[in-house]
Amino acid sequence: MSAVFSGLGIALDKVLTHEPPIPPIPQYDVSFHFDYKTKLGVIDVYQTAIQMMYDLAQRSYVQTVQAVDSKQFGNYDVLILFINIQPPSAPEQLQIMHCVSTLYRAIQVMTDGVLFFQSRAALMLRHKHIGGMSMTPVDAPAAMTDRNDSSADSIEEDEGSGSNSASDDNVLHWSRGHIKDRDNPQFSIDFQFLGKSINTKEVSMAVLEALTVAAPHPKDAGCEEISVASPDGGCAIIVESIPSVHHFTYQWATRALILLYQKIVVAQRKFGDVKLDLRYDGQIFGELRMLKTTGDKNNTELTASER
What we know:
Elements: E1 11-12, E2 28-39, H1 42-57, E3 67-69, E4 78-84, H2 96-113, E5 117-125, E6 128-137, E7 154-159, E8 176-180, E9 187-197, H3 200-214, E10 225-229, E11 235-241, H4 250-266, E12 272-280, E13 283-292
Antiparallel strand pairs: 1-2, 2-5, 3-4, 4-6, 5-6, 7-8, 8-9, 9-12, 10-11, 11-13, 12-13
Helix pairs in contact: 1-2, 1-3, 1-4, 2-3, 3-4
């Protein structure tokens, strides 16, 4: 693939070894171009991308968009922007599905190649340039106050302070707690860390993978199960519905995933095995488990005692 954007350093031609976990888009291609002089923070990239993927998963997969900007849903040290360059009358238009596929590909390329740099991407549909994606640093990081503000949702921790500073066997301190969703007061989570610590990259990629799997589904559609592993096989996430009077949908599955990442894992700096009971009006109607796996992407057997 050749680069379309100029003036940003050396272009990169890269073939992904792990395709997005969604149906391929016919005749759709992306070329990435990296500026190796401008570094981006690794966790900042993951946080921004995961928040954007969550936002995309709340929209119709076939919705046409003129622009999607990560500033719409929070303040981060990295800015991700999609732009549609086609006139409204053109048959080829930038849609949510293109943003989902491109965002996943971008983070996979960056992770595989350790390429956390400013970047641009050209988005091509049926050989026509329909838009672009950019990933750049934000100029004023001191103004970023929302990113890890765990007070945005009420967290009550019942026992253990938890730490990822770990003993030699990489076992996290046991802890459990309860989180109330500020935006959805009837939705709450009981969480319990189970023991093993997991690499930050593996956790981030597993959460991104799960949100990507959810994105093509309408948010009000019933969700029976989401089961994914990170591309390198070091972390597995299973989201399941539990029989209840309340309907467990992709809205609640994706909400659990974003709260898991932002408010439980990143905010507490505890990347490890964790089990979540998902409640609506106090009744459990779903479950999420994030578990350390073997690290072999061809064999993701769980290492935790509880599956």
